[in-house]
Design brief:
With 156 residues, this protein is α+β, with helices and mostly antiparallel strands. It contains one helix and eight strands. The relative contact order is 0.16. The mean pLDDT is 83. This is Rhamnogalacturonan I lyase beta-sheet domain-containing protein.
Length: 156
Amino acid sequence: MRKLILYLFVFCLTTSVYGQRIMENLDRGVVAVRHKPDAVFISWRVLATEPENFPFNLYRTTGTEKPVKLNPQPITGGTNFIDTKADFTQNTAYTVKTLVKGKETAGSKPFVVPANAPVAQYLSIPLKTPAGYNDASRWRIRAGAPPGGQRTGQLL
């Protein structure tokens, strides 16, 4: 009987530990690309602690000008926007602000689209070669693969 009570006690302790959500400390993650000659696609992240249809306001800062709100009504039901009025000859920064009980919170970290950015539906991210991978003819590196080869430990 004592063993049964002990097992139940341990079971209750372990299930409550595994019931907790493990989360990373992420920011809004705003990203913008000039996806057409006359448009910028802006996207951002909804955080796990936010409810569905959480409202957002999106701001564009062109060069040294003051920020301009791009949406007439709060954005809900999605986390992206297409800006067709950007000035591509200047650096353009995009910032997202959330609305909590009708009041704007502090803005996200701005994402800057450089002046005269090329049209592309992706961002090019340079990779740093890990130590020991200097001979490019001998090694092929894939993004996401840990140093030393594939996840199985085999070289490519």
